[in-house]
Amino acid sequence: MGFEVTDKKIIIIGCGASGGTAAQFARKTDRKASITIVEQGKYSQYSKCGLPYTVSGEIPNVYDLIEYDSEWFKKEKIELLLNSTVSDINTKSQSVTIQNDTETIEKKYDTLIFCTGAFPFVPPIKNINTNDGLADNVFSVRTIDDVKNISSKIKKDMKATIIGAGLIGLEMADCLYKKGLKITIIEALPQILANNMDEDTLQPILSILTEKTTLYTNHIAVQAKQKNDKVTSIIIQNQKDSKQQEIDTDIVIIATGTKPNVSLAEKIGCTIGKTGGIVVNQQAQTSLKDVYAAGDCTQYNNSINDKPTLIGLGSIAVRQAIAAGINAAGKSYELPKGVLLTRTSEFFGIEIAAVGLDSNASKDIPMIYAKLKGSSKPPYFPGGEPIVIKIGIHEKTGVILAAQAVGSNAAQRINTFACAIQNKVNVEDFRKLETAYAPPIAPTLDVITLVCDIASRKFKGKNR
Amino acid sequence: MGFEVTDKKIIIIGCGASGGTAAQFARKTDRKASITIVEQGKYSQYSKCGLPYTVSGEIPNVYDLIEYDSEWFKKEKIELLLNSTVSDINTKSQSVTIQNDTETIEKKYDTLIFCTGAFPFVPPIKNINTNDGLADNVFSVRTIDDVKNISSKIKKDMKATIIGAGLIGLEMADCLYKKGLKITIIEALPQILANNMDEDTLQPILSILTEKTTLYTNHIAVQAKQKNDKVTSIIIQNQKDSKQQEIDTDIVIIATGTKPNVSLAEKIGCTIGKTGGIVVNQQAQTSLKDVYAAGDCTQYNNSINDKPTLIGLGSIAVRQAIAAGINAAGKSYELPKGVLLTRTSEFFGIEIAAVGLDSNASKDIPMIYAKLKGSSKPPYFPGGEPIVIKIGIHEKTGVILAAQAVGSNAAQRINTFACAIQNKVNVEDFRKLETAYAPPIAPTLDVITLVCDIASRKFKGKNR
């Protein structure tokens, strides 16, 4: 365990996207610092977001997900302790207790970074567990081992039940569908992709889900039936009329969200926010001096209504980690005041993206919404793809606060709205934005400005 | 010739994209106004930008380009006079003299809109003309009849010579290549796409042009040889050493730019700018009261260095026409103070886009440039496409002033920079922009922010 200690000592707990990135940026900031990462798993920094695509085979080898391997950390003189856990932290002596199979050591730190991520949340489904954890054919999608296990179990024509119709649930539905499985999706809420998209933008996705899968919204999984430690069926219950039905299944995927892993941080006195995440500031600093945090274990305000938000997005994790790494290494890097929650995914060939809060989450802000269905190309050019776009503006100021898109280049179109929201651009200015036009590529007036014309008319109607 | 005159009288000269759009927005603004469009050609509003793609066959029928047909204008109670020219304008009596094959009429106006477009510029190539205009196999690409003629003349394995390697020249090169012709491109300047892109971003295009066509930069076409009113070869001359060579050809495309059609406007006293276009303001108004102009016949300032610019982009033409139509009809609509010159195209499968001035045109501004070659997807996800991205920021302020992209989703990526430039966003803020990330769609940190990290480092280096 050891490189020569020359200078500042930085310890990072966790080597996911944020832990690895924090180490990388700490090293860029201070070439001499002693940097140690303690990772409980057996792999170095890999992409969690890529996990579903190893099941579909789009990513051919699960180990391709490893973005920086042990060699890379070695080359950068970053000490990487795999299969190791931090069992205790002493903030007075500024040291952590690290345990692995063979030894327990104490290690001093000057700055500490929590990149402890989040645990998959498993809802209370009766009989989903064996004595030994989840039943043999029930999986979360959180680690390389999870998807290795899923891939080893699936065969064409098997029945898969996916619990949770959020981003991961639908990504897994698509990936398992591509492998020829028959898909049933169970969602407790009245709509899919809650917290991500408004229901009225989702028609293209709903059409294809209805065609290619069996989708139960407003249903909760209440009980599993097992045989030989395997779940053979799931009993689901309609939330409206409490009627139950039994869904036969060969494999169950739990995709009902995550819970931040904050026990160590809480123990040493870091403030935990009401969302359950470690509260961090613009420097990715916790409430304790010299202690930073980044990624899925943190809570940060969103820039829309300044309310605390759990950070469950890899893109934000990496940006926080850049700040944590640089600040922990002694230079200064400030994050924007709040996050925009820019997000995207793709299921069954349809791209979705959004930025800002969905309508439910922004109920406390007086908003005007506008929606438009347009095309990616001018009407005379064959091959234009449909796009549904919806924006939300502040009812009194006209400032753009949210945007959602489903269809062609949704993510890049939403990035332009992200820039607008970051800079508090008014819908009156944005609707005059000169977008790029060429017949094979985009229409003369892109849907991103046309939807603003609609919002502008509504705004003027309300504020005349 | 006539609908009942009820109220305000608006006459629009020209029914291209800007003339048709101006009429449409004038009508939306004033349901009762008498609106007349005088168009010298035989077709109503069609897409000039779409012309090349009727030659390749991507747009199967040339008449598909007609965006609003005579019926549409009739339904909107807009009088459309085709095959008609305005021979004179009397600003005192506020009337125009309109001629067609059979009659000459006077028509009163309250407001007048010039949408007279631009003529193709034909460089002085000896012997390119017959007594009857251009030789039989020499064409510009400006009208439906031009491309109908081109399409009727071309056959697989013919030799095509394209004079001018700007947007239209390269679009035609691609479209004729798709029909199996052998392509030679002659460009007088040292680089292709001058005024649009910097040479150092163009390597992907140059590679493919070198592979699929014969490209002569730094060469001017000096003379044509004719047989039976057809050009059989073009003699080109190297601008450096004056060496000449003869290029056999079956068809010649002239794509060396356009000249604004301003003679009528000039005659009545509209100020013509030094670029040769009609000077218009934020209301799309000329120097004369009650006289407006929009599109390729106008000059407007660009928002980067506030210098006058010729508007040769359909996207801007339409935006000016919206302003002209609304203002001419009596309501108020203000354009942004300057144009961003957001532009895009695609040749040989490679998308290019840019916003702001190219490096040459912004020599008077102290700039810092940064360039990056990245990918459209994370490295572990197969199928990522290369993107070259270059930005220019102000050396003293760090404000983003220009961006260029070649590759995957160049246009939508440039739109995000257009939003940044419109709102004078600093590179320090833009580089922290939260872009949408998902493995099949975009990397954790998009090239649009990564290139800003490079610019930021250079900026800090210069301003420490």
Can you give a write-up of this model?
2 copies of one chain form a homodimer. The first copy, chain A, has helices spanning 17-29, 52-56, 70-75, 144-153, 167-178, 203-212, 263-267, 314-328, 410-422, 427-430, 447-462; strands at 9-13, 34-38, 78-81, 85-90, 95-99, 104-108, 111-114, 118-120, 129-130, 133-134, 138-139, 159-163, 182-186, 214-216, 219-227, 230-238, 244-248, 251-254, 258-260, 278-279, 291-293, 298-301, 308-310, 343-347, 350-355, 367-375, 386-394, 400-407. With 464 residues, the first copy, chain A, is α/β, with parallel strands linked by helices. In chain A, strands 3-2-1-7-21 form a 5-stranded parallel β-sheet. A 5-stranded parallel β-sheet of chain A has the order 11-18-12-13-14, covered by helices on one side. Chain A is globular, with a radius of gyration of 24 Å. The mean pLDDT of chain A is 96. The interface between A and B is large, with 65 and 65 residues.
Q: Helix and strand layout, with pairings?
A:
The structure is a homodimer of 464-residue chains.
Chain A: E1 9-13, H1 17-29, E2 34-38, H2 52-56, H3 70-75, E3 78-81, E4 85-90, E5 95-99, E6 104-108, E7 111-114, E8 118-120, E9 129-130, E10 133-134, E11 138-139, H4 144-153, E12 159-163, H5 167-178, E13 182-186, H6 203-212, E14 214-216, E15 219-227, E16 230-238, E17 244-248, E18 251-254, E19 258-260, H7 263-267, E20 278-279, E21 291-293, E22 298-301, E23 308-310, H8 314-328, E24 343-347, E25 350-355, E26 367-375, E27 386-394, E28 400-407, H9 410-422, H10 427-430, H11 447-462
Parallel strand pairs in A: 1-2, 1-7, 2-3, 7-21, 11-18, 12-13, 12-18, 13-14, 20-22
Antiparallel strand pairs in A: 4-5, 5-6, 8-19, 9-10, 15-16, 16-17, 22-23, 24-25, 25-28, 26-27, 27-28
Helix pairs in contact in A: 1-8
